[in-house]
Design goal:
- The complex is a heterodimer of chains A (107) and B (127).
- In chain A, 0% of the residues lie in helices and 50% in strands.
- Chain A contains no helices and eleven strands.
- Chain A has 107 residues and is mainly β.
- In chain A, strand 4 and strand 5 form a beta hairpin.
- In chain A, the strands form two sheets. In chain A, strands 2, 4, 5, 6, 9, 10 and 11 form a seven-stranded mixed β-sheet that branches.
- The model of chain A has no long low-confidence stretch (mean pLDDT 98).
- Chain B has 127 residues and is an all-beta fold.
- In chain B, the strands form two sheets. In chain B, strands 2, 4, 5, 6, 9, 10 and 11 form a seven-stranded mixed β-sheet that branches. In chain B, strands 1-3-8-7 form a four-stranded antiparallel β-sheet, with no helix packed on it.
- In chain B, a hairpin with a 6-residue loop joins strand 4 and strand 5.
- Classes of the chains: A mainly beta (107), B mainly beta (127).
Chain lengths: 107, 127
């Protein structure tokens, strides 16, 4: 199985800040990497697919980058509604696997 | 409105089985895959398996092989997941989601993602 490791496990930032967090795969997954946002008490929501493609309807302050084993999700100007846990997920090979999540808190 | 609507919460005893359904509205599942993901209380997301509604191909995580059955009914636009031999650590929120395949303008495969999610079904396993 491909292991996905996210860091940090949590972060706290102020509204308007630029925040980034990473996801590392245990082997190369080229760009078969998706990012999801899960707000408290809600189902996950697809933000980014194929490492850097923005899902329709997702604000442009979200962006993804990376290839191979290292990936980054960036929020250019953090908003109060971005309070959530963010998960990466590889679709390179089954069993598809998720990272453990990065919890974003607002200061 | 494009959505997946899941069946209601379930309580089962250890050793029993549970079947969760997932009905699509606003789109047809026939052209899609449906994946199942679970989330134990306070924990992360765990992929269980997926089914191609078009040809009923299924693939499941090794952890669940032999215990999980994925089915789809095109006539009712519904997918289902049955989990048997339940244990207390199967207590979780179970989600279905639509699996979509992405391609670039050249037809290059960009991989799969889960773009529409159900609201989740809580399954509690307790004696």
């Amino acid at each position: 199985d491909i292991r996905m490791t996210q860091s940090p496990s949590s972060l706290s930032a102020s509204v308007g800040d630029r925040v980034s967090f990473t996801c590392r795969a245990s082997q190369s997954i080229t760009t078969y990497l998706n990012w999801y946002q899960q707000k408290p008490g809600k189902a996950p929501k697809l933000l980014i697919y194929a490492a850097s493609s923005l899902q329709s309807g997702v604000p442009s302050r979200f962006s993804g980058s990376g290839s191979g084993t290292d990936f980054t999700l960036t929020i250019t100007s953090l908003q109060p509604e971005d309070l959530a846990i963010y998960y990466c997920q590889q679709s390179y090979s089954t069993p598809w696997t998720f990272g453990q999540g990065t919890k974003v808190e607002i200061k | 409105q494009v959505q997946l609507v899941q069946s209601g919460a379930e309580v089962r005893k250890p050793g029993a089985s549970v079947k969760v359904s997932c009905q699509a509205s606003g789109f047809t599942l026939s052209n899609s895959g449906v994946t199942w993901v679970r989330q134990a209380p306070g924990q992360g997301l765990e992929w269980m398996g997926w089914i191609s509604v078009q040809n009923e191909y299924t693939d499941s995580a090794p952890k669940f092989q032999g215990r999980v059955t994925l089915t789809a009914d095109r006539s009712t636009n519904t997918a289902s997941m049955e989990l048997t031999s339940l244990r207390s650590d199967d207590t979780a929120l179970y989600y279905c989601a639509r699996k979509v395949d992405h391609y670039d303008s050249s037809g290059y495969d960009l991989g799969s993602a889960f773009d529409i999610w159900g609201q989740g079904t809580m399954v509690t396993v307790s004696s």
